[in-house]
Design brief:
single chain; alpha+beta; 2 domains; seven-stranded antiparallel beta sheet; 7 helices; 7 strands; 21% strand; binds zinc ion
């Protein structure tokens, strides 16, 4: 990745980047849109340089930060790896969740999008706890059954699944939670989404759909 004082971007940089777009969520090619002026970089010699790319799918601007590898007389060499300043957001049908669960789960997903996997785990524990309360008596058991069913469907072995169960159903405090890595956090994310779907979203969608059907049946009946 080279920015040249006279020639601008060198061919390597024009090579596009593949990335999950933080706006449209599509894994798309990104083309360079705004490139810093090499002459002023050579003058100031910052350690990091920001570039704006354009998403080929939705044309939104995507900001990336590169570390400078080396300054030479006429050119700036950037390291190939970069930091995404805006990460894609995880989506969920939040409107079906109980209010408190929604607030906590939104924050959990923000932690996840920012790669803060243990903050994510703590927020998952709180979100799950509030969901069990909202489900009323036997709520925790209901959640547990859904999660065990999800483990079976996804074919996750017990050893891998133990920390996920500990986060969601352990009776201890936050300081007793196991440390999660990216892979475990990913499983926790999908399992909790599934549990919320089974406990709230599914029922909400089904009752809403049936209500609409009934409404039209009654409308038609009253027309005859
Ligand atoms: Zn896009």
């Amino acid at each position: 990745m080279i920015l040249d004082k006279d020639q601008g971007i060198e061919s390597e940089l024009e090579e596009r980047i593949g990335l999950e777009c933080p706006y449209c969520g599509v894994y798309a090619h990104m083309s360079p849109q705004s490139i810093p002026d090499a002459a002023s970089l050579l003058h100031d010699k910052p350690k990091h340089v920001g570039l704006v790319y354009q998403c080929d799918a939705c044309h939104a601007p995507v900001f990336l930060r590169f570390a400078v590898r080396e300054y030479s007389e006429n050119r700036v060499e950037l390291l190939r790896n970069f930091v995404e300043l805006e990460r894609p957001k995880e989506r969920f049908a939040f409107s079906y969740l109980p209010k408190e669960t929604e607030v906590l789960f939104r924050e959990a997903l923000t932690c996840y999008s920012n790669n803060s996997f243990n903050a994510f785990a703590s927020m998952c524990k709180r979100a799950a706890g509030s969901a069990f309360d909202a489900l009323g008596e036997g709520g925790k058991l209901r959640g547990f059954e859904e999660v065990m069913a999800a483990q079976g469907i996804a074919g996750i072995d017990d050893e891998t699944f133990a920390p996920i169960k500990a986060v969601l159903f352990g009776s201890g405090q936050n300081e007793d939670l196991p440390l999660l890595d990216r892979a475990q956090a990913g499983i926790l994310l999908e399992v909790l989404k599934d549990m919320f779907y089974q406990c709230f979203v599914r029922r909400g969608k089904l009752t809403r759909a049936i209500k609409v059907r009934r409404f039209f049946v009654n409308e038609n009946a009253s027309n005859f």
